[in-house]
Amino acid sequence: MATEVPRSFRLLQELEDGEKGMGDGSISWGLEKDDDMTLTYWNATIIGPPRCPFENKIYCLHVETGPEYPNAPPKVRFKTRVNLPFVNSAGTVDLRTVLPRGWTKTMHIKDVLRNIWLCMQKAKGVGHQPQDNLSY
User: Fold this and answer.
1) Which residues contact 93 (CB under 8 A, 6 or more apart)?
2) CA distances from 6 to 3, 24, 71, 88, 100 (A)
3) pTM, 2 dp
4) Residue 1, pLDDT above cutoff 70
5) Does 21 or 46 have the greater pLDDT score?
6) CA-based nearest residue to 44, from 71, 72, 15, 73
7) 114 with 61: CB under 8 angstroms?
8) How far apart are alpha carbons 83 and 85 in whole angstroms?
9) Beta strand pairing call for 75-78 and 41-47
10) What's the CA gap between 119 and 1, in Å, rounded?
11) For the segment 74-95, what is each residue's pLDDT rounded down to a tens digit?
12) Do 14 and 108 contact (CB within 8 A), yes or no?
């Protein structure tokens, strides 16, 4: 049986990964406030994928890892206005669409952000996007 890592250790590792910068730089994440001892409130940034309506635009998101994380998924909300089929009128991301196989406790914040980026890249019929720098 595998040993379960405590929530705080897991989130500290995710914070370190975010600070190091993982991948190609199209996604990033970190704590909203440096003094958040519960490691609950996060900021994230997605740079829009190439060859789509979101190309080269910067999108800011809010991520909340509740007390049940990683057994329960984080809550994710766009701060920057965007028209996407999996984002409601308040900016909340429908993780059932973004993670079609569902959330597992082995997943991380970066996995959710990467899947949002991929869904943005594949989005069809998204039409006109809001003016840059508009917020929810």
Assistant:
1) 61, 76, 77, 78, 86, 87, 116
2) 9, 29, 11, 32, 26
3) 0.92
4) no
5) 46
6) 15
7) no
8) 7
9) unpaired
10) 34
11) 999 999 999 999 999 999 999 9
12) yes
Q: What is the pLDDT of residue 136?
A: 81
**Total count of residues recorded for the chain:** 136
Q: Provide the β-strand partners of residue 47.
A: 58
Q: Is it the case that residue 130 has pLDDT exceeding 90?
A: no
Q: Are strands 27-31 and 75-78 parallel, antiparallel or unpaired?
A: unpaired
Give the amino acid at 69: Y
Rank 41-45, 46-50, 130-134 by mean pLDDT and report only the highest: 41-45
The CA–CA distances, whole Å, from 3 to 6, 9, 94, 114 equal 9, 13, 30, 26
| 113, 64 Cβ separation under 8 angstroms | no
Radius of gyration for the alpha carbons in the chain, expressed in angstroms and rounded: 15
Residue in 118, 115, 80 with CA at minimum distance from that of residue 95: 115
Residue pair 79/65 in contact (Cβ under 8 Å)? The answer is: no
Task: Output the CA–CA distances (angstroms, integers) from residue 12 to 5, 41, 47, 65, 134, in the order listed.
Answer: 11, 13, 24, 12, 31
What would the DSSP string read from start to end of 63-83? EE--TTTTTSPPEEEESB---
